[in-house]
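User: Hi! I have a protein structure encoded as tokens and I'd like to know what sequence might fold into it. I'm fairly new to this, so please keep things simple.
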């Protein structure tokens, strides 16, 4: 997740990241951290009932001030859709979860509520990427340490890896994260063996994924662990995923001249349009998250939702989506906007549809830039 690029107006910051990406994109000299493409797909160990449970409990936890949208909603939605577990959306504190790059959600419980209701802890805890200034949040870190001590398997999505690493849970383990933060992870956490060229890594009671789009196969791997291969295959088919193996080429991603050109042009030189996604009760939360997240990274579009009567709406898997805040709603009301409906079709196909439309609206360079941020090869590989 390259939220730092999106938020920072500093070209020097971008160029610094470009320089660092030269080492990030290079495989180790001995190849020890680059699994072969033919490597056997990793599998998360099958769930073992504990504490008298007949169904596993999965907690997806976000930090209120800034949590990556796809990292949070896709695992929640895929796991809820599968029906193999009881899934709960948590926040570190009371109030809304502010998602990045857009949207607000009302969590179902706070971590304090969850501890009171589920004192034996979750079976699995999913940790999305959070805002940079919250990656050392003592409340979140202490809670993850406590959940791990109670027996939970902790699963990081994208740069949720930085949070889990800061909690010390990757020490002595293999793990991965977004391609762009590898140098940071290696510097700050030398006790972890950081792998590249893999969508997700399974090592005992910790699981980690590569960048944003890796939330999809990692979530299906969790379904397989809890409900079996057939349940995962049914879920993948229903949602529109081809599979969930761990094969990946992260070495292809890097910041070059084309990326810098697109970034500078989109951020400083080109116009921005407002896109509004109309939503109502039952909206497909997976498709919504993938769509909004992709457009929200273009730097050419400001994306928001519109709810009936400016009231909260309940998504297809039970998430409470909050209407835009007053300032954002006023900006939409006073500027020309374009509607961006969520098309029908399999939920996970929304990402490819969004990428294709971004390429049509803003050009292939922008489509590739979004693919770079989301570590999504089909979009990034286009020329």
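Assistant: Happy to help. Inverse folding works backwards from shape to sequence: for each of the 383 positions I chose a residue that suits the local structure. Here it is:
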């Amino acid at each position: 997740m390259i939220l730092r690029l999106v938020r920072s107006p500093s070209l020097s910051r971008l160029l610094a990241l470009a320089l660092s990406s030269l080492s990030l994109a290079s495989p180790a000299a001995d190849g020890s951290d680059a699994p072969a493409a033919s490597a056997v797909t990793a599998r998360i160990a099958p769930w073992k009932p504990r504490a008298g449970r007949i169904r596993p409990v999965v907690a997806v936890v976000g930090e209120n001030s800034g949590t990556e949208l796809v990292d949070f909603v896709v695992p929640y939605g895929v796991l809820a859709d599968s029906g193999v577990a009881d899934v709960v959306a948590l926040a570190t504190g009371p109030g809304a979860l502010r998602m990045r790059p857009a949207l607000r959600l009302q969590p179902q419980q706070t971590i304090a509520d969850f501890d009171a209701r589920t004192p034996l802890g979750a079976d699995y805890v999913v940790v999305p990427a959070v805002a940079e200034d919250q990656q050392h949040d003592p409340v979140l870190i202490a809670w993850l340490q406590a959940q791990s001590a109670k027996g939970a398997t902790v699963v990081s999505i994208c740069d949720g890896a930085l949070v889990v690493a800061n909690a010390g849970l990757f020490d002595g383990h293999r793990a991965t994260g977004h391609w762009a933060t590898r140098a940071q992870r290696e510097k700050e956490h030398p006790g972890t063996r950081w792998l590249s060229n893999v969508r997700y890594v399974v090592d005992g009671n910790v699981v980690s994924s590569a960048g944003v789009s890796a939330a999809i196969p990692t979530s299906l791997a969790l379904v397989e662990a809890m409900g079996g291969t057939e349940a995962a295959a049914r879920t993948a088919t229903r949602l529109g995923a081809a599979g969930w193996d761990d094969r990946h080429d992260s070495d292809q991603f890097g910041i070059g001249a084309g990326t810098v050109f697109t970034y500078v042009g989109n951020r400083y030189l080109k116009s921005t349009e407002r896109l509004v996604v109309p939503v109502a009760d039952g909206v497909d939360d997976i498709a919504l998250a993938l769509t909004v997240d992709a457009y929200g990274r273009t730097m050419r579009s400001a994306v928001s939702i519109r709810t009936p009567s400016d009231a909260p709406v309940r998504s297809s898997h039970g998430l409470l989506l909050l209407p835009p805040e007053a300032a954002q709603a006023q900006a939409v009301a006073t500027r020309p906007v374009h509607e961006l409906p969520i098309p029908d079709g399999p939920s996970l196909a929304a990402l490819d549809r969004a990428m294709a439309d971004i390429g049509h609206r803003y050009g292939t360079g922008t489509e590739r830039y979004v693919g770079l941020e989301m570590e999504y090869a089909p979009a990034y590989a286009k020329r």
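A useful reference point when you look it over: The first strand starts at residue 57 and ends at 62. Feel free to ask if any position seems puzzling.
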